Amino acid sequence: MNFISTRGGEKVNGAAQAIVKGLAEDGGLFVPESFPAVSREELEEMLPLSYPERAAKVLSKYLDDYDGAELLSALEAAYSKFEGDPAPLVRIDEGIYILELWHGPTCAFKDMALTVLPYLLRKGADICGIKENILILVATSGDTGKAALEGFKDAPGIKIMVFYPDDGVSKMQKLQMCTQDGSNVNVVAVKGNFDDCQTAVKRIFADKEQAKLLKEKNIILSSANSINFGRLAPQIAYYFSAYLDLVGGGQIEMGEEIDFSVPTGNFGNILAAYYAKRMGLPVRRLHCASNMNNILTDFFASGSYDTHREFFKTTSPSMDILISSNLERLLFEVCGRDAARTAELMGDLKQKGEYKVTPEEKAEIAKIFDGGFANEDEVVETVYDVFCDTGYTMDTHTGCAMKVAIDWFEKNKKDNTKMVVVSTANPYKFPQDVLYAVTGNDVKDSFKGIKRLHAATAMAVPKSLSGLKDKPVRFTECVKRDKLFEEVLAFVDKK
Ligand SMILES: *Cc1c(COP(=O)(O)O)cnc(C)c1O
């Protein structure tokens, strides 16, 4: 399958190239030349399959340059690192289900793709005949960094460097990253918020001089950020799997449409749902859930994407984002795959910090998407209400999506379409905030939070989190955002 840039300047033959390059040379994102279809018969055939088998069926539609049997064993190996079912569906109320995507090694949904990406990348480099070592650069708002480090640690021929905003990750997230083991990893804090951090990393990718310098050192750059198609592809699979679980469990008829409510930051997770729909999965609407950084809510309502606004630090830090990079892929679709138009919008974003879609483009988006958000009080109230009513404990990010789903049902009282709320983190990843929501208790220490949350909910504590307490901190560096490349060079030169 060919992949093309959303900005029209590049076309590559095969997913391997798109994955190894990460970002297109014109600054655009790689998208498949067309959406592969999954027929009703194929859906039926996928019903009895395991999660990795279902994922292999979906992924091989895009990755036709990878060997199918090898892909399946890579997926089986990746998801064997999960506790039990990688993507279980839990019914919590009439017509409302939760898709839990946090049973992987780092307890957040990023594991769904980042346990698979090292294979996709290493194999992709082989397919492309690349001999150089690969350096992965990641800008993270918290969860990606840890999941990428865990996925790539000690991978042969690959080094990984993670940058996180000094000012924008939870204590637990920071500890998870700074205690990371592995001989090929580095973690650096960047002064500022996530957007500062992401922009600084993007600048390295765009700099031809710096690329040349690295190439002389036998190194090429790649990204593990959610703009990489290798991140997007594994995420499409769990939308199929959730649907099949609903059919298999007799909750819906095959062919019946369902809705998803997705806690959204960089727009990668929900974009995968959109791709699933375009492939033929019976999805009706996608509810894009934000926290107080509700730029997407405003965009869906007004057609205007305006970054001139206050930035809030919230209890759902993985959604504290003002520039949702993957939205570019949706814009490309809704303007009729007009690359010049997409480039124009992205140019406006870069130069003016805002853009506006036409009424036609806005209407096209509204056919499938709507947006909503939860402020901080509403997150607390939602997490508490659901806990009281059903005994189910959810994290703060999932709380935002639940609030948006509940709002939808209140506005559309006769709506019988089943709603799947996508749950992106284990509650113990944000123990103090979830403890506060569930009990009103405020504790200063994360591990105390874990203990008390366990006392309040009796939910099992993942070992990967409780064990952090005794792990030594390896990474403490914090740099200004114009000093990232120096850090990269120092890491590369380190023996
Ligand atoms: C990354 C993340 C999100 C946001 O997902 P996007 O794909 O960036 O929209 C939401 N919740 C959690 C817990 C995350 O780690």
Note down, in words, how this protein is organized.
By secondary structure, the protein is an alpha/beta fold. It has a domain at 86-105 and 231-460: Rossmann fold (3-Layer(aba) Sandwich). It has 22 helices and 16 strands. The chain has helices at 15-21, 40-46, 51-62, 68-79, 111-114, 117-127, 143-152, 171-178, 194-206, 208-216, 229-248, 268-278, 295-302, 327-334, 339-352, 359-366, 376-390, 396-411, 431-439, 446-457, 463-466, 484-493, and strands at residues 2-5, 11-13, 30-32, 89-93, 96-100, 133-139, 158-165, 185-190, 219-223, 258-263, 283-290, 304-306, 354-356, 369-373, 419-423, 478-479. It has a six-stranded mixed β-sheet, sandwiched between helices. It has a five-stranded parallel β-sheet with strand order 9-6-7-8-16, sandwiched between helices. It has a three-stranded antiparallel β-sheet with strand order 2-1-3. Strand 6 (133-139), helix 7 (143-152) and strand 7 form a beta-alpha-beta unit. Helix 3 (51-62) packs across helix 4 and helix 19 crosses helix 20. The longest helix is centred in the middle third of the chain and has 20 residues, at 229-248. The protein starts with a strand and ends with a helix. 53% of the residues are buried. The mean pLDDT is 95.
